[in-house]
Amino acid sequence: MSGCSELARAFLDETFTESPVLASQLGVDGFDDQLDDLSESAIEQRRRRSQDWLRRFEELTDADCGSFDERIDRDLILSLLRGRAILDDWQMWRRQPDLYLGPGLGGVFTLLLHRLKPEPHIAQAVVCRLRQVPRVLDDARRNIAPDLAPSVYVERAMRQARAGARYARELLPSELADESLRADVAEAGAIAGDAMDAYATWLEELLPRALLRGLNADHPPTPESMRQSYAKETERETVPARAQPGHLPARRRVRGRAITAVSAAGPGGRLVQQPTAVFNCHARTLLRAIPA
User: Fold this and answer.
1) DSSP letter (8 states) at residue 94
2) Using an 8 Å Cβ cutoff, are 279 and 73 in contact?
């Protein structure tokens, strides 16, 4: 196994551990009963780890990659990590209240959408995730900063929380065909629903202190550090003229590889050697890897 493949495997293993909802979305076993940790300490730890991963992947040379495909995988991961670095100072986790609703709602919906496991397993996983919703929303109350959160974000999260509460209480149990499993889901749904309603009430109280509609002059939408980082990345990844019209087939091949990787993994596939399936393609990064 090449150095690139080993590093990519370790990176994905850590990513799935830190983002169990993402792992479930990709059919990775062992994470269906967990929700992401969105506490400040966990977010800060991920930020530091992301910086370390960026350094390690930047040190990988083409010789460390066993194939052209692995070089593309390396550059895709680098694109993701550089994007995170650009947004670090923006601290979206302090600005966007609906960020904390996503794991509970999306994490449950994904299990019922794909139905990759027997229904008893799905029901147990749904119950576990619903019971963790209050913990995630408690983290939201500690993390969201009223002077950074635009009112439009707060209003949107309020509506989403009210709708999510109804979904958890009233609609979720009926998703199970086995009536004997519905009672536990309904009980856990009531717990999650109460937590979402309480979160919506908290957001209503926060709204008068939130930024009016958008972002004011003291909190510009693109801080200077972000503009500089983006300009640097854009310059680094400028697409050469030769790579624009003539390499459209190469772009299609790369996108095809991502789709093929997802299809080939199948239920429960770990995707440890297919990072292309996990991250969206960044055209400029990919075109840098396309030979003349």
Assistant:
1) G
2) no
Q: Which domain holds residue 253?
A: 1-90+249-292
Query: Do 156 and 215 belong to one domain?
Result: yes
Tokens of residue 219, six digits: 């909190």
The first and second tokens of residue 278, run together, are 């996990």
Contacts of 79 (CB under 8 A, 6+ apart): 237, 279, 282, 285
Indicate if 197 and 222 belong to the same structural domain.
Answer: yes
**Can you tell me whether residue 220 is helix, strand or coil?**
coil
Q: Kindly report the CA angle at 199 between 44 and 185, in degrees rounded to 5?
A: 95
- What is the distance between the alpha carbons of residues 199 and 101, in angstroms, rounded to a whole number? 9
Contacts of 194 (CB under 8 A, 6+ apart): 165
Query: Euclidean distance between the first and final Cα of the chain, in Å?
Result: 27
**Structural domains in the chain (count):** 2
What CA–CA distance (Å, rounded) separates 245 from 247? 6
Strand partners, 211: 150
Q: What is the pLDDT of residues 78-121, one digit of tens each?
A: 999 999 999 888 899 999 999 999 999 999 999 999 898 999 99
Chain segment 152-168, per-residue pLDDT in tens:
999 999 999 999 999 99
* Same domain? 229 vs 256: no
Residue type, 263: S
Contact 170, 182 (CB under 8 A): no
